[in-house]
From TrEMBL:
It is a multi-pass membrane protein. The keyword Membrane applies. This is ER lumen protein-retaining receptor. Keywords: Endoplasmic reticulum, ER-Golgi transport, Membrane, Protein transport, Receptor, Transmembrane, Transmembrane helix, Transport. The gene is LOC102596589. The chain crosses the membrane at residues 56-76, 97-115, 121-141, 153-173, 179-202.
């Protein structure tokens, strides 16, 4: 554990809390992509297949349970909550996310560190997480105006990955055998996808104006 990974985990956790606050406090999921949330649920379930077999620490176990549980709860609310589901922007959330699933799985079969079930699914989850935000970004661009909580949710998600890049750099410099190149490359791709959003986010913050993305 280092300060960069801790910062990454905390910003990731904050992003989830912000989204849960938006859904449960406002009883609305407007501006949130169900497809992105379903992709994240798949990411966490496939990444943490070792949850009940490999115990690393209490911290790791709790964080895994939090991310799996929260992602499934968010998907359930957006699909089945009698009030929340009415605000879902179904007409704007039309990204063909099955393409992301297929490409990520093929990549995992071809590019992995060990050809075992657990390692292939781990690689799949890393590749999928790198692009899971795409339906969300497309939805926000189509809607134009972005409410504060939805904007903060995406911002903290991007910040989480940026901190993890610093974590990998730190580990590469301080550990003799740090070989998680799949995480590093995928993390760079994921962070790059947020570049446009970050630009408009900081412009709106600087001008104290509502966040708007170009269509």
């Amino acid at each position: 554990m280092n300060i960069f990974r801790l910062a990454g985990d905390m910003t990731h956790l904050i992003s989830v809390l912000v989204l849960l606050l938006k859904i449960y406090a406002t009883k609305s999921c407007s501006g949130i992509s169900l497809k992105t949330q379903e992709l994240y649920a798949i990411v966490f379930v496939t990444r943490y297949l070792d949850l009940f077999t490999d115990f690393i620490s209490l911290y790791n176990t709790v964080m895994k349970l939090v991310f799996i549980g929260s992602s499934l709860a968010i998907v359930w609310c957006m699909r089945y909550h009698r009030v929340v589901r009415r605000s879902y922007d179904r007409e704007l959330d039309t990204f063909r996310y099955w393409i992301l699933l297929g490409v990520s799985f093929i990549l995992a079969l071809v590019l992995h560190e060990k050809f075992t079930l657990q390692e292939v699914f781990w690689a799949f989850s890393i590749y999928l997480e790198a692009v899971a935000i795409l339906p969300q970004l497309v939805l926000l661009q189509r809607s134009g105006n972005v409410d504060n909580l939805a904007g903060q949710y995406v911002f903290f998600l991007g910040a989480y990955r940026a901190f993890y890049i610093l974590n990998w750099i730190y580990r590469y410099l301080t550990e003799q055998r740090f070989t998680r190149w799949i995480s590093c490359v995928s993390g760079l791709v994921q962070t790059a996808l947020y570049a446009d959003f970050f630009y408009y986010y900081f412009i709106s913050w600087k001008n104290n104006a509502k966040l708007q993305l170009p269509a």
